Structures are given as C-alpha cells and as structure tokens.
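Thread: Newbie trying to understand structure tokens

Hi all, I'm a second-year student working on a class project, and my supervisor (Dr. K.) asked me to get a predicted structure for one chain before our next meeting. I've only ever worked with sequences, so writing a 3D structure as a token string is new to me. If someone could post the tokens and maybe explain what I'm looking at, I'd be very grateful. Here's the chain:
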Amino acid sequence: MKLVRDIPAGGATRIIRGYDATSITTSDGVLTSSCVIAADALEPWPPHAAAELTAEHVAALLAHDPEVLIIGTGAKFALPPQAALAAARAKRIRVEVMDTAAACRTYNVLVGENRRVVAGLML
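---
Reply by user tm_fold:
Sure, no problem. This is what the structure looks like when written as tokens:
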C-alpha cells in the first residue's frame, strides 16, 4: 500500500510513505525489519510478532516520550501480552494496537496533527 502525505509544516519530518508485508518506506528510506519510528527516531526493534512483545520492548518506545503509542502487530491484528503494555498504561500514555498497515496510516495522521507519537511496527 502506498501512503502519500505531505510533511506537516513545523512538525515532525519523519513520515511513512508506503507499507507492504516485507517493508516500510519512510521519508528516510526503506526498512525491511521491525522498527521504531518517531519524530526523533528510526531504529531497529526486536519483536516480530505480538506474542514476543515484552516490557523492555515497550520501554524502548517510551524512551521517546510519546503521548500516543502505536503498536503494529504485522499483517494481522494480534493482542500482545498485557503485562508488556503495563508501563505505558501506568504513565497514562494512550496505547493503540492494530495491524501494521493501519498503524502506518494512524502514525501519519497523528504526525500530521503534530502529536508526540511513537510507533513500534512489526514486519
């Protein structure tokens, strides 16, 4: 799926331009493994399936001080272990879990609204 969206004025410049089952195309290039994407970050992220998500994986996302945390679980929606999300919820950070295609679209919408959003995207 190709996503086309202008970079918001005055906001974050890192956006997602496209997604398919094996890659994510960002304003910085093409990624072929799970990643963290935020205004200040584009880095590898270890989990490849929702069941693998741990508190440490979520802590890596929280380190970017989001107001909204998006978890993309791959081609299909899957619930991650609730214990992995506990730290985010304890800090009253909104957590949205969805398939990775929806997560990419949602990330772009929130970036366009100049929200502090961090996405952990599984491929």
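A couple of things are worth pointing out once you decode it. The longest strand covers residues 16-20. Helices lie at 55-62, 82-90, 100-112. Feel free to ask follow-ups in this thread.
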